[in-house]
Amino acid sequence: MRYVVSNPDEKSGKFAERLLSAREKRGFSQAELGAKADLQPAAIGHFEKGRRSPSFQNVRKLANALNISADYLLGRTDSMEGATTAFRGEDKLNNDDREFIQMMIENMNRKSEGSK
Fold this sequence. Notes:
GO terms for molecular function: DNA binding. It comes from Hyphomonas oceanitis SCH89. This is Helix-turn-helix domain-containing protein. Pfam families: HTH_3 (PF01381). The protein is mostly helical. The protein has 2 domains: about 1-85, lambda repressor-like DNA-binding domains (434 Repressor (Amino-terminal Domain)); about 85-115. It has 6 helices and no strands. The protein has helices at about 10-25, 30-35, 40-50, 55-65, 70-75, 95-115.
């Protein structure tokens, strides 16, 4: 299952603006951010222009690559700083391990919802 960040114009514009700002503050080109987040540079460009909305997984990848809070990118907080981790020790894992754990969490949530 693929989760996509909702795309109302205001939120999409805020995400695009904040992604561009965070990338520039970190001194990354779109290609550098794409490499760090395991995304195509063109995808970064689409997100920054508000032409496409990232999946939840891609928001996490971008936040981790930029070392900022996903909540900041999503417009839920005004601070770029903050944890992007879901649990203690996550920062010591590589991206593949984080994605595996996220997939397990999503599967457990679906299993839990199915048993209700």
